Request: fold
Amino acid sequence: MEKMTPRERGLAFYKHQPTDELPTDNDLYVLFNPEAYDERPDHTKGGTDWFGVDWKYEASVDAIAPDHTQDPIMEDICDWRECVKFPDLDAWDWSKVEEIDHLSEVDRNKVFVMMFVNGPFERLHMLMGFENALCSLLTDPEEVEEYLNVYMEWKIKLMEKVIEIYKPDVLMFHDDYGTQTGMFFSPDIWRELFKPQLQKAVDRCHELGTLFELHSCGKIEEIVPDFVEMGIDSWQGMEINDVAKLKKVTKDKLSYHMTPDYQKYYTESLAAGKVDEQAIREDVRKILYPNAEGYCYSPMFLPFGGESSDIMWDEIWTDGKTIYQTA
Reply:
């Protein structure tokens, strides 16, 4: 196969087509986290988002999260009509996008991926707090569905505006569904309440000519085959899931944009007081070789820096040039 440009390689990955080598985030795309509208505040500082939710910066993970020391917007899902104020998208000053986000500086020779945060479940627990949100799925599913219908109508209007102005190749839709050991709720609840809402976003995104990537962390293997049925182009997830097994099920219908299990190596290095470089490199190869078979697989960025992450990236980058030759 002829040598591909980063953009060719990235688009081929998202479209489930063969590539000349393993795509990695170093050359796959430009990830864009918009600041021009307040779906969430500055990711290095925190603040209040446009729904009125307070966020704070957590130095330990170098990210922001809702500040749960503050009272939630609502505690009872039955109060959503009175408590939830949806931002007026027509009143937002979209003329400042270039001034704030500097779109003209984006390298369009790479795949342009737009981060689109706070999907239906994420926004629900941001408004209610995690325990209240999970309880509402069991006690008042009809009210949850009513709220989600209105929320997604608003969210899709935002999606349309974002795609019109930013013109991303890929919309990365954020909605985490699990912990390190399993889902926050049953697959049946996900299929009943959240899958139909997510389907609306997938369909509209494709109608607008944009690829759809679902970012969803946690061990969520039970629902990944549903992603193919829904037409999701790529899943950005974690390798705590059995990716090799899932790829046999989804075949070439879903791309896997995966985060290596960096927590494992980071924790081990802290416990031991040193990094076992050889063990890390061997583990990375054990992941890369079975998962890179065929195509539609790409190791994702590593959120934390440090020596163990540097070793992982070096091994990924080196092996990716040799093990992923597809005729």
About this structure: The CA atoms of residues 153 and 288 lie 40 Å apart. The mean pLDDT is 90. The beta strands are 29-32, 46-48, 54-58, 63-66, 111-116, 170-174, 211-215, 234-238, 255-259, 297-299.
